[in-house]
Amino acid sequence: MRLLGFAFIVGACAPPRAAESASPAPTRSVDVPRVVVTPDRATSLDELFAEAAAAAEKGDLAGAARGFDRVEALEPRGALAGEALFQSGYAHDLLGHHREALERFRRLVEQHPGHARARHATLRAVRLLNYLEDFTWAGRYADRLLAASDLRPFEAVVAYSGKALAAVNEGDDLRASAYVERGRDVVERERLDLAGRLPIDLAPLYFALGEVHRVRAERLRFTPLPPDFSVALERRCQLILDAQRAYSDTWRAYDAHWSTLAGYRLASMYESLHRELVAIPPPAPADTKARQDLFEAAMRFRYAVLLEKARSMLEHTVAMAVREGERSAWVERAQQSLLDIRAAESAEQAALDRLPYSRADLEEVLRSLKEKSAKASAAQAPSSRGINK
């Protein structure tokens, strides 16, 4: 009978029993290597595993992954299954097959929790989940790491990054900040962020810190206009600068993915602030069409610098991504956002050109608005006499 392309697992055949034996000999179990029979050859799982390992040594990562996958598929609960899953996941990770790698690491953790590679697979799963922005699961797998009492420094940093990103993704900036600070404590204690290029595991941690500042900044809105506008604006600008410092630390890891994501986020903070500010309605004294137009022109003139900053950030981000060969969806978003901002800048300039106001006119309006804002803030502040009472 011919075997057409199918593989069979064949165990050792037990010897026939004696017909009639008054005193049967004692039996003992013997471990026999599992054998795979195909139309071309017969080989053991140990040999298949060794062939996959040899392929990996030669740099044939795709062939190695296929070989390790075959070993695991033929005996998913066998002694070699856990190691085969890990090695296949590692090969896929090196190939940039992130989802395939993650699937194998997760299966190892879930199906072989006691395996010697389970902790390392958990670590790699958190890294990949952060990369793939599956932050909810990144936080869950980070919990598995944090359950260990002997975490090494980089394991702790990866775990705290996963927890921080999971929390900030839910809008919980307080809890996210706490995990970021725990991670930064490890970084400082172990001196992991000395001047120069940072280890890539630090990039998600600093990105999470930037996200904390971004979430807090976005809570400060200008519609409706807050009574303490100047204070709110100063606070939001400070949060943008805080986020920029955190994102710039992300860039020090020289990882194209995290750098692209950080650059896009920062540019969006500048662009959204500009959009909200120029949408502020004219104040009550602007009771004519001419005064309303003057107010609008002054606001556009004053805050045009925010669009310039957003454009500059995106230009650098896109250039870096193209140079590094990054092809994620974030690159496409950055490219589209850059086109939108350039168009917005052109529209802003065209709007200013249509209005019959000089630069001096606009600067005078801004000076007047600044004086009125200062007087309003002073009037709202309690006097020293009132405090002493």
Terminal Cα span? 105 Å
Q: Reading side by side through the largest sheet, how are the strands ordered?
A: 1-2-3
CATH architecture of the domain at 35-116: Alpha Horseshoe
Instruction: Return the CATH topology of the domain at 35-116.
Output: Serine Threonine Protein Phosphatase 5, Tetratricopeptide repeat
Helix content: 55-70%
Specify the overall morphology. Answer: elongated
| Rg, nearest Å | 31 Å
The CATH homologous superfamily of the domain at 35-116: Tetratricopeptide repeat domain
Structural class by SSE content: mainly alpha
According to DSSP, the number of beta strands is: 3
Total helical segments: 15
Percent of residues in beta strands?
Answer: under 5%
Unreliable runs: 1-23, 383-389
The largest sheet, given as strand count, sense and whether it forms a barrel, is:
3 strands, antiparallel
Instruction: Give the integer mean of the pLDDT values.
Output: 87
